[in-house]
Predict the structure.
Amino acid sequence: MSDFPELTQAVIDGVGKKVLELVNAELEAGTTPQSILADYMIPGMLEVGNLMQEGEYFIPEVLRAAKAMKGALEILEPLIAESGGTDSAGYVVIGTVDGDIHDIGKNLVGMLLKGSGFEVNDLGVSVTTDTFIEALRARSGPVLLGLSALITPTMDEMPAVVKAVEDAGLRERVKIMVGGAPIDQEFADEIGADGTAEDAAGAVALAKRLLA
């Protein structure tokens, strides 16, 4: 018997059809979209992150849960926007650096961040330095920038982006985290980033610390 409510467990299990049915049932019963997200959906994604850190869940399970979450967000986000929004855990700009088209890791991080209450502006893959800077300038206040790279040659783009953030005078309000298979803490320190994480769940924990 699960300790979680049925909707939360459906998110954890990644059963998209059931998640949509239960979300619609909650809406019909008068539950606010904010409450559905905060009380059912986010706890489900946080548990997915825990299971990944514990080695019980791997990328296929996390992707299933993320897909189920995405389907629910497509219903809930417009309703939340209509009703004046909900408290955000912070604003994140993420993208895979210029020359690199890998996005599974980035997408996982983005979905877990969204599921944890962050506003996420995903710029996609092979993102130029100028595009990152434009996205950061478009938002006032504290911002977290997430840079992803999977192939070693494109790692050189990361220090270039960090330097561009500094040159643009944005570094004081922009925290930078870097990630991808070839990235380690030593590299993050070397290029002046604020941190890295071993997996998507760790990235969410890091994001919370950096924007606290």
Summary: The CA atoms of residues 137 and 170 lie 8 Å apart. The chain has a mean pLDDT of 90. Strands lie at 91-96, 119-122, 143-148, 174-179, 195-196. The chain is about 55% helix and 10% strand.
